[in-house]
């Protein structure tokens, strides 16, 4: 069984101080995908070593801007290939994409950790978000050719439907809940035959949500957003057996403003 955990850590050093690495180390995962690491590669390796994850193979893409973005994939086995290239030159070295290839009993499995920035409706920042999503779609299509095993994990900063956002009426027209953003996910599912694994195994919502503001009573009232996903190619999704959102039991036990998403796949890594 291959267990993949994806988590936006909202700063790896802050998550470690709050107990996040202890939580991750207890999950018996084969692959851990991280987003918003917000650290240099050297800092990331040190924090992981101090947190009991120093023996893992770490593939990381550091953000160009210090203290922003940054993604990583931790694997128990050495990947056969690592790439941070999603396509367009403008997204080189921005710390939003890292993919690794792992051998398995069913051929190569490609695991991606991605961080899609929030965006802002009707601004250049939103236009950049759409261009990045275009690049992601093209890469996913390529990986799924001929029944390939691939899974995109990470923080997409998009709620696919009203089931994924508690206050959806209050967010109509805002970044994260725009029809144009949702259309990208529709194409991944419809044209490229990827599966939102957590939703497929859980069934209809509302929720479970994966992000809540630190402010106010958002967490206590479960006024959240589901923006963290595992999108698997159809061949791999057919082998998904369990999906879980690791929502903290109480506000005081949170180690990020996001909750991790764990999926088990009936695949054995070599």
Automatic annotation (TrEMBL):
Catalytic residues (UniProt): 115, 155 (proton donor/acceptor), 258 (proton acceptor)
Xref: PANTHER family: EXODEOXYRIBONUCLEASE III
Site entry: Important for catalytic activity: 228
GO biological process, one term: DNA repair
Site (Transition state stabilizer): 157
Residues in Endonuclease/exonuclease/phosphatase domain copies: 5-258
Cofactor binding remark: Probably binds two magnesium or manganese ions per subunit.
Site annotation Interaction with DNA substrate: residues: 258
Keywords, in A-Z order: Hydrolase, Magnesium, Manganese, Metal-binding
GO MF terms held by the record: double-stranded DNA 3'-5' DNA exonuclease activity; metal ion binding
Binding residue positions for Mg(2+): 8, 36, 155, 157, 257-258
Needed co-factor(s): Mg(2+); Mn(2+)
Family, per entry: Belongs to the DNA repair enzymes AP/ExoA family.
InterPro entries named among the record's database cross-references: AP_endonuc_1, Endo/exonu/phosph_ase_sf, Endo/exonuclease/phosphatase, ExoIII-like
Name this protein carries in UniProt: Exodeoxyribonuclease III
């Amino acid at each position: 069984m291959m267990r993949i955990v994806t988590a936006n850590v909202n700063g790896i050093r802050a998550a470690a101080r709050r107990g996040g690495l202890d939580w991750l180390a207890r999950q018996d995962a084969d692959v851990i995908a991280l987003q918003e690491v917000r650290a240099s590669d050297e800092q990331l390796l040190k924090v992981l070593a101090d947190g009991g994850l120093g023996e893992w193979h770490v593939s990381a893409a550091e953000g160009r801007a210090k203290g922003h973005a940054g993604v990583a994939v931790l694997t128990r086995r050495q990947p056969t290939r690592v790439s941070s290239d999603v396509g367009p030159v403008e997204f080189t070295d921005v710390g939003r994409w890292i993919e690794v290839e792992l051998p398995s009993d069913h051929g190569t499995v490609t695991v991606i950790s991605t961080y899609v920035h929030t965006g802002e409706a009707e601004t250049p920042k939103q236009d950049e978000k759409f261009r990045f999503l275009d690049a992601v779609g093209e890469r996913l299509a390529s990986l799924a050719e001929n029944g390939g095993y691939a899974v995109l994990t990470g923080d997409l900063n998009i709620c696919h439907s009203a089931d994924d956002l508690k206050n959806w009426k209050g967010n109509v027209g805002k970044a994260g809940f725009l029809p144009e953003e949702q259309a990208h996910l529709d194409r991944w599912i419809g044209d490229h035959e990827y599966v939102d694994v957590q939703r497929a195994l859980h069934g209809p919502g509302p929720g479970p949500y994966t992000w809540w503001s630190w402010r106010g009573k958002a967490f206590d009232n479960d006024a959240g957003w589901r923006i963290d996903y595992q999108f698997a190619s159809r061949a791999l999704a057919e082998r998904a057996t369990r999906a879980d959102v690791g929502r903290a039991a109480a506000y005081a036990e949170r180690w990020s403003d996001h909750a991790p998403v764990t999926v088990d796949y009936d695949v054995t890594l070599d």
